[in-house]
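does this look right to u?? uridine-diphosphate-N-acetylglucosamine version
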Amino acid sequence: MDTSAFSIAIMAAGKGTRLKSKRPKVLHEIGGRALLLHVIAAAEKVVSADRIYCVIGHEADRVRAAVESTGVRFVLQPEQRGTGHALQMVKAFFVLSGLPVPENLLVLSGDVPLIRPETITAICDIHLREHAAMTILTAVPPDPTGYGRVLRLAPGRPEVSAIVEQKSLAPDQLATSEINSGIYCFHTAALFEKLDLLSTDNAHGEFYLTDVAAMLVADSQRVVAVKAESVDEVLGANTIAEMMQLDAAMRLVTARRLMVAGVTIFRPETTVIDSEVTVGPDTVIEPYVQLLGATKIGSECRIRSYSVIQDTVIGDSVTVRNGCIMDSATIADSAILGPYAHLRPESRIGTGAHVGNFVETKKVTLGAGSKANHLNYLGDAVIGSGVNVGAGAITCNYDGVHKHQTTIGDNVFVGSDSTLVAPVTIESGSYIAAGSCITENVPEGALALGRARQVTKPGWVEKKNKEKEAC
Ligand code: UD1
Ligand code: CA
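got this back:
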């Protein structure tokens, strides 16, 4: 469908009083992304960002900063006097900026985040076909309480007579189950003409955009309603509990998408998977796994329970055992991690490498086939391939002021409980004796011992006991 005659306004200036939160409502997150960013993402699939007008007001600077990179335009609503007032600001913006007024204006709510681009396009399409002045997207949810209700002229007919807000419903209207989604398409000139006539004579003392419906009808203009294909898509988020319901719905959609693409997810309702995460086929995800942010996982991996993986890229055939924590790491094919490994930012784990129990890495490159299997801290280090880092060995990378680098060549054997005091270089093929404190570079093929000699005193215990008896 040709959407060149449409622009989109997104109402996002409200405070969200019902959330009882300091954070502006539209910046609360579901599926790991702010509500408003979900709405902008859907809108951008229909029209270009420079034809999207985002109405901001409450904590405007914070909201603007959070979504600015999308390239949408901003309209300031300094005081939040209702959804009708938000659109009055859009009208004023066109007058002041001199930007061409679009023939049709599609209006979305910043707190109705599951809206799909296909539905937006469908409303535009119906709006044109019906030659309507206003087209309202509706739904019939199991519990309509709290929403505005859409009154049709006659059951089954598309024409609408009015939208009535919950608080203004007459006793005989309370049973009306068709709700207003807060998503509309307007013939812009018809909308702009009516906006100036809105009043605040209602339960909230606000300018209601919804009043425009009855005003247009009174003027013999056509107002129609169209039901959304799925109720979930138009559910609003006015409380934290409602938002968490949407979050669960969205994550289930993501899990289903991955399963359709060949991923096995045991007990998907226990996983927390952000919407942008990708996973290859034949990967198995066990219960209680979290995959967050821009995480990408290859195929034929196994991600065992209780792992939390954020912004991390994992290759194919990788095993992540229970309870691993990863943030901004890169893992090559066939690596084995955990249980309980902590991979911090800029950890690069090579092909077939092992990072085992209670190992912490930060800004580390671990070469192909290298192993750090038990109780290590590896920070600011470049480690070659085929290296064995023994249990308890650590890099001392921080002198209290600066970080320093440890370099370890290929096939080095680092004995257990060694401390490598950076900056230090351990060249290929060398051995570090267990329990060493290494403060000097070690040349290729050498054995370095950095520990006190053992002293053994034969018969010492017997001698000591005799001394005790004597006194
Ligand atoms: C609104 C509708 C209601 C509908 C519901 C669907 C009105 C009067 N009512 O009610 O019929 O069923 O949405 O979710 O429109 N906003 C501004 N500026 C303001 C006030 C609000 O930009 O001055 C924004 C909010 O940030 C929000 C959206 O408009 O994103 C809707 O406002 P909200 O107060 O949540 O309206 P509802 O009570 O949900
Ligand atoms: Ca709302």
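The first strand starts at residue 6 and ends at 11. idk if thats expected tbh
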